[in-house]
Amino acid sequence: MKMRHAGTVLAAAALWSGIAAAQTFPTRPVRVIVPWVPGGINDTSARLLAQQMSVNMGQPVIVDNRPGAASTVGTDIVVKSAADGYTLLYTDLTATAINATAYAKLPYDTVRDLGPVTMVGVSPMFLVVHAGVPAKTVQELVALAKAKPGLTYASAGNGSTSHLIGEMFRGAANIDLAHVPFKGSGQAAVSLVSREVALHFSASPPILPHIKSGALRALATTLPRRSSIMPDVPALAESYPGVQIFILSGMMGPARMPRDRVAYLGAEIAKAAQAPEVQKRFDTLGLETKTSTPEALGTFVQTEITRLGKLIRDTGTKLD
Predict the structure, then answer these.
(1) Distance between CA atoms of 141 and 161, rounded to whole angstroms?
(2) Helices (H), the chain
């Protein structure tokens, strides 16, 4: 009984020690590195979260843009930072998984050197065509592509999510599509509106105004299920099971961060994401809030590395 009582006391002491550690953190500003240029969905959502977290936590949460090499420059900065919870990475986790294979050599190991904190939100992508394309459904588009091989599709660049879902769709539908890479999603969307290309896989913000005007037509979402943004638009996976990809925004940090700080940060991020004013802005970005445990986030990244890694190798996609 004495030993059992002693174990209970030790367990309680450890619990209270963790709580006390969380309560004394943070004592100085927290830096959130966004490895993308300002203005995109990850940068905007990171700033919304940071502002709310600053209010809730009583310490400044500062967004620091460090773009370059498809997000690997900023990621490397985080990996090499102290694992104390004061330097975090807010990024597109699907891109993080892609980079693990698309780059022949990275200065870090994605699974070993990054510590997951929480998912934040899912941004659906949509298969869109310009109004001059005589296809109103995915089935009609596939029939058109088989009748006229070489239909062009725009992407945000080699190795981007819009490129890989295009290749996934091409293979599943057994059609001939010609890839036209651009430097970013904005340029790709402009090329579609101007009818330089026939189709594009895009996040919602660049295309929604053009869908409303009738210049573009959405045929499918690349989520595994229909999106709340355009619930009448079917999922591509309804016709081609497994053909899915989406932007998953989330927070990570250096590996081996203290577990109590990871738990504290995850709870604060979830709290900030659920704030009504943040939710309202997320809706305008097309970001569907989805927080998680660190374990669920880690599993997602590893699963996507395996799934997308095979596609990257099969298509010979390289980012070096």
Answers:
(1) 20
(2) 2-23, 41-57, 72-79, 93-102, 110-113, 138-147, 161-173, 185-193, 204-213, 236-239, 259-273, 276-285, 294-315
Identify which of 182, 41, 224 has the alpha carbon closest to the alpha carbon of residue 123: 41
How far is residue 9's CA from residue 6's CA, in Å, rounded to a whole number? Answer: 5
* Over residues 108-132, mean pLDDT: 97
Dihedral sign for Cα atoms in the order 27, 60, 42, 182: negative
**Residue in this structure with the two tokens 């200065």, named with its chain if needed:** 107
Strand pairing report for 288-289 and 114-123: antiparallel
CA angle at residue 248 from 243 to 253, to 5 degrees?
A: 135
What's the pTM? 0.87
| Residue type for position 311 | L
Angle at 80 between CA 310 and CA 306, to 5 degrees: 10
**Bridge partners of 181?**
155
Q: Do 288 and 267 meet the contact criterion of CB atoms below 8 Å apart?
A: no
Kindly report, residue by residue over 189-247, the tens digit of the pLDDT: 999 999 999 999 998 888 999 999 999 999 999 999 999 889 999 999 999 999 999 99
Q: From the centroid of its chain, how far is CA 121?
A: 8
State the Cα angle at 117 between 112 and 118, rounded to 5°: 125
Q: What is the pLDDT of residues 132-158, one digit of tens each?
A: 999 999 999 999 999 999 999 999 999
Nearest alpha carbon to residue 272 among 51, 94, 84: 51
Tens digits of per-residue pLDDT, 30-77? 999 999 989 888 999 999 999 999 999 999 999 999 999 999 999 999
Q: Which domains does the chain have, with CATH numbers?
A: 28-122+246-315 (3.40.190.150), 125-239 (3.40.190.10)
Q: Name the band, by pLDDT with cuts 50, 70 and 90, for residue 23.
A: low
Q: Are 129 and 141 in contact (CB under 8 A)?
A: yes
